[in-house]
Amino acid sequence: MTISCTLIGAPIDSGQQRQGCLMGPAAYRVAGIGSALTALGHTVEDRGDVALPALRDATSSNPAVHHLAETIGWTEALSASVQTTLADGRFPIVMGGDHSLALGSVAGAASHARGAGRPLFLLWLDAHSDFHTPDTTVSGNLHGTPVAYIVGRDGFEAFPPFPAPLPPQNICMFGIRSVDPAEHAALLDHEIEINDMRVLDEYGIAAPLRAFLDRVKSANGMLHVSLDVDFLDPSVAPAVGTTVPGGATFREAHLVMELLHESRLVTSLDLVELNPFLDERGRTAKVMVDLVASLMGRKVFDRPTRSF
After folding, report:
1. Please, what are the averages of pLDDT over each run of 10 residues along the chain (308 residues)?
2. What torsion do the CA atoms of 116, 169, 246, 227 make, to the nearest 10 degrees?
3. What is the pLDDT of residue 180?
4. For a disulfide at 58, which of 158, 206, 264, 291, Cβ 3.0-4.6 Å?
5. Is 234:283 a contact under the CB 8 Å cutoff?
6. Strand order in the sheet with 4-10
7. What confidence score (pLDDT) does residue 251 get?
8. Which pairing describes strands 171-176 and 120-125: parallel, antiparallel, or unpaired?
């Protein structure tokens, strides 16, 4: 099946404090994301990088929060871009940029899903739960807040209201292995499916993911996938500022992507937290492009030989 893909660059560094993620969109392009998709028979449109709009004043009661106005601006711009792309019948691939971009990308997908009369589901492939609010974050890094915004938690009054907050049971966290105490306490009050690395070690990758995908299918849902580089083990993908040992292996990550492709349920995709400044000869960017290719139909026996 041919898919009309739209590449959307999100050169965002404001959600955390280690510079370099803004180079992510360029790294994906250099690593050949467009040619990998066209080789699979898909059409590719690159809309370039989203521009940050004029900023308005924004404040937080938490003095640790930084770059609030900038993050709100990116949220508004990306929400509009993803919503427009989906309305055009295309598959948006948002190339980041830190994970604060999901504040906007998922909002855009939720707006479209609401208009289409379908529920939106979210697969969060990440080492972190990102369930802080601007009020609870100690670091002030807003890349740790998207899932809280998506389910409608309090504390986001400075942001545009999330268009259609997702029921917690529509969210599946996969590969989690680093959760702050305040996030953990809040997660206990929400019915989010959490498949941490203990679960995946015990039951494997396929069974929990297939169970979630079955729920998406039975609800005629749309599925947004948010893939953080740190879902992978740092030995596989070193170019991320938030490394946590014990992540998914190369093959485990590809199995996730292959199962997602076979489901035919994914309607939008984030690629986040790639910091090319921390990479080894483009190694992580190439791995991430390879994963996108698996999501879009490349089979295990089609993988090209390469050297890093």
Report:
1. 96 93 98 98 98 94 96 98 98 97 98 98 97 96 97 97 97 96 94 95 96 98 98 96 92 97 98 96 96 93 66
2. 10
3. 92
4. 158
5. no
6. 43-49, 4-10, 91-96, 266-272, 222-228, 120-125, 171-176, 193-196
7. 94
8. parallel
pLDDT, tens digit, 9 for 90 and up, residues 123-166? 999 999 999 999 999 999 999 999 999 999 999 999 999 999 99
Task: Write the single-letter amino acid at 6.
Answer: T
Q: Is 46 helix (H, G, I), strand (E, B) or coil?
A: strand
Q: Which of 242, 239, 244, 225 is nearest to 294 (CA)?
A: 225
How far is it, in rounded angstroms, from Cα 253 to Cα 109?
A: 24
132, 256, 98, 127: CA torsion to nearest 10: 40
- CA-to-CA distance for 143 and 170, rounded, in angstroms? 21
CA proximity to 305, closest of 292, 290, 284, 291: 290
Is there a contact between 266 and 295 (Cβ–Cβ < 8 Å)? yes
- How far apart CA 200 and CA 212 sit, in angstroms, is 14
Domains of the chain, earliest start first: 4-299 (3.40.800.10)
Catalytic residues, by residue number, are 99, 126, 128, 130, 143, 228, 230, 273
Tokens at 8, concatenated: 């959307």
Q: Are strands 193-196 and 222-228 parallel, antiparallel or unpaired?
A: unpaired
For the range 41-44, what are the long-range contacts, defined as Cβ-Cβ under 8 Å and sequence gap of 24 or more? 41/2, 41/297, 42/2, 42/3, 42/4, 42/5, 42/296, 42/297, 43/2, 43/3, 43/4, 43/5, 44/5, 44/6, 44/7
Residues 190, 147: contact at Cβ < 8 Å? Answer: no
Give residue 302's pLDDT. Answer: 72
What is the pLDDT, as a whole number, of residue 76? 98
CA R_g for the chain: 18
